[in-house]
Write a structure and sequence with these properties.
By secondary structure, the chain is of the alpha/beta class. The chain folds into two domains: 219 residues, P-loop containing nucleotide triphosphate hydrolases (Rossmann fold, 3-Layer(aba) Sandwich); 80 residues, Alpha-Beta Plaits, CATH 3.30.70. The strands form three sheets. It has a six-stranded mixed β-sheet, sandwiched between helices. A four-stranded antiparallel β-sheet has the order 2-1-4-5. The longest helix has 16 residues. This is ABC-2 type transport system ATP-binding protein.
Length: 312
C-alpha cells in the first residue's frame, strides 16, 4: 500500500474520560480517505468536539491511537499538526488586523517562510483579495468566516476541519461556502465537516459518520445511506375530503391529513413489493377519488434523527 492509498486520518480505539468521570468517547474507530469530504454528524454532547480536539492536539489523548498522514498525534505532534487546518465555529479574529496580515501571520505560526504569492492565491480563491487591506471589523459575518478558512489554509494543510462553517450565515452565503468547499476538494484537500445543517452534509459529503453517546453509530457513503435507509412517501391528494381512513385500508400504514384532503403512505423503496399498486386499487374500491399522486424521499435529516432515536 502506497502513502496515497493509506487513510490520511486513522483513529483506532480512542477513548476519552474527563476528570468528572464523564466518558466522552467510548472506543471510536474511524478512517478518513485522502481527498474525501466526511460529514461528522451528531447531537450536542455526542463527542464531535472532543474527537476533533484530540486529532488537532487541543486535548490530551490518553487511550487509543490517532495518526494524521502517518504521524502519531502524540509522539510526532508537530508533523501531524502541520498537516491540519482548523476552522473553529467561533469568529475569533483580531478586529483591527488587516485581512492580508492576519492570513500571513497564521502562515508564520507554523514556521512557514513568508510567501506573499501564496497568501494572495489563498485570498483570491476565497474571493477575499479585494478585501485584503480591509480591517477584520469592517467585514460581514460571511467574509469573516472566509478569513478563518484562509487562515487555516495559509500553511498549506492537507486536512481541513470545518466546525459548523456556515453557522449564522444566510442561505446565499451558505451556498457560497459550499462552492468554496467544492474548490478545496478539487484541489485534493481532505475535509472533515461538522454541521447542524443536514442539507449541507447531503450536498457536500462523500461519506457520513454519525456519532452519538461517544460511539460511531454508522459510517457510510452518503448516497448509499439514503438508498438503504431512506424510505419514500406517497402522498395521495383526494378530490373530496375523507372523514377517516376506510376500514378496508387499515392494513396499509396510512396517515390522513387534518383537512382530509390527502393521504400519506410510507413504503420501503428497496422492498420487493411496495404495495402501491394494490393500495391505489383499494382506494378506488373504497370510493376515494384521486386528484393527484406524488412521491417524496426521506432526507438525510430524517435518517439521522431515526438513528439517534434508536441509539440506546
Amino acid at each position: 500500500m502506497t502513502s496515497q492509498d493509506r487513510p490520511i486520518v486513522s483513529i483506532r480505539d480512542v477513548r476519552k474520560t474527563y476528570a468528572t468521570g464523564f466518558q466522552a468517547l467510548k472506543g471510536v474507530d474511524l478512517e478518513i480517505a485522502r481527498g474525501e469530504v466526511l460529514a461528522l454528524l451528531g447531537p450536542n454532547g455526542a463527542g464531535k468536539t472532543t474527537l476533533i480536539s484530540l486529532i488537532c492536539g487541543m486535548a490530551r489523548l490518553e487511550e487509543g491511537i490517532i495518526e494524521v498522514g502517518g504521524h502519531d498525534v502524540v509522539r510526532d505532534y508537530r508533523a501531524a499538526r502541520r498537516m491540519i487546518g482548523l476552522v473553529p465555529q467561533e469568529l475569533a479574529l483580531e478586529p483591527f488586523s488587516k485581512v492580508r496580515d492576519s492570513v500571513a501571520y497564521s502562515r508564520g505560526l507554523f514556521g512557514k517562510p513568508r510567501d506573499d504569492a501564496r497568501v494572495e492565491a489563498v485570498l483570491r480563491s476565497l474571493s477575499l483579495w479585494e478585501k485584503r487591506d480591509a480591517k477584520i471589523n469592517e467585514l460581514s459575518g460571511g467574509m469573516k468566516r472566509r478569513v478563518l478558512i484562509a487562515k487555516a489554509l495559509a500553511h498549506d494543510p492537507e486536512v481541513l476541519f470545518l466546525d459548523e462553517p456556515t453557522a449564522g450565515v444566510d442561505v446565499e452565503l451558505r451556498k457560497g461556502m459550499w462552492d468554496v468547499m467544492r474548490e478545496l476538494r478539487a484541489q485534493g484537500v481532505t475535509i472533515i465537516l461538522t454541521t447542524h445543517y443536514i442539507e449541507e452534509a447531503e450536498a457536500m459529503a462523500d461519506r457520513v459518520a454519525v456519532i452519538s453517546g461517544g460511539r460511531i453509530l454508522l459510517i457510510e457513503e452518503t448516497g448509499a445511506l439514503m438508498r438503504r435507509m431512506g424510505s419514500k412517501r406517497l402522498t395521495i391528494e383526494l378530490q373530496t375530503p375523507a372523514g377517516a381512513i376506510p376500514p378496508a385500508l387499515e392494513r396499509y400504514d396510512l396517515t390522513l391529513s387534518a383537512d382530509g384532503m390527502s393521504i400519506d403512505y410510507a413504503y420501503d423503496r428497496a422492498a420487493e413489493r411496495t404495495g402501491i399498486a394494490s393500495l391505489l386499487h383499494d382506494l378506488s374500491q373504497a370510493g376515494l377519488r384521486l386528484r393527484d399522486v406524488r412521491t417524496t424521499q426521506d432526507s438525510l435529516e430524517d435518517i439521522f434523527v431515526n438513528l439517534v432515536k434508536e441509539d440506546p
